[in-house]
Amino acid sequence: PHVLAFVERWASRGAGGWPLRLVLRAIRLNRELRLPWWGPFYPVRRLLDAMPCVELEIVGEPVVRREPPPWPTGARRG
Questions:
Q1: Disulfide-capable partner of 16 in 20, 22, 24, 30 (CB 3.0 to 4.6 Å)?
Q2: How many angstroms separate the CA atoms of 57 and 51, rounded?
Q3: 13 assigned to some structural domain
Q4: Is residue 78 situated within a structural domain?
Q5: Is residue 75 part of a domain?
Q6: pLDDT in tens for each of the 78 residues of the chain?
Q7: Owning domain of residue 40
């Protein structure tokens, strides 16, 4: 807490600029929510953990196609 107060006072004098103020806000929010030190990245971690894992297994020898490749599923044509 004392270090944060010192840095906040130093930043309020105009030193450090907006990146420092942004980091201080993230640290304050992190402490208010009682998250671990990596708290700001917690939603990203949960999102990545919830994503399914996909493995592709390519079988056979590569072949040169004479026609264009098929459209991806869900892609708009044109």
A1: 20
A2: 19
A3: yes
A4: no
A5: no
A6: 566 677 677 666 665 566 667 777 777 887 788 877 666 666 767 766 777 777 778 889 988 889 988 787 766 665
A7: 2-49
